[in-house]
Amino acid sequence: MNTHHENLQQALSDLFAPWVQALKLRVESTQTDSVTLRLPQSDALARVGGMLCGQAMMAAADTAMVLALIQHFGQFRPCSTVQLSSTFMKPLSGQDALVTARVIRAGKAMAFGEIDLAGADDGKSVFRASTTYALM
Questions:
Q1: What DSSP character marks residue 44?
Q2: Is-above-0.90 flag for pTM?
Q3: How far, in Å, CA of 53 to CA of 25, rounded?
Q4: Cα separation of 21 and 118, whole Å?
């Protein structure tokens, strides 16, 4: 893991509540305005039939977008989720998830992003979200 990945990984420990840390998210890759996290498969996050629960998907998506904003700005800026619009397209079970958050636009007071959650093994999208953040 390179130093930049380590800094984002450290932000997961420093900036987020213990229950978010319990998701065990790991930084997989970064680009200029995006971050991809791995959400490990876990019985603790599964509902009946071993499917990843929607609440875990939404928490991972919101968390990934905060890291994408850190990536975009080069540092943490306090922010608050104003809107998170989610679409659940199909269940995910039996594999880790890759959560890719991309900053679409970031201004002085607001930021907008898109998130895709896909199976780590099959690459199939199972969840999409659009987000709006207030920047403090």
A1: G
A2: yes
A3: 15
A4: 20
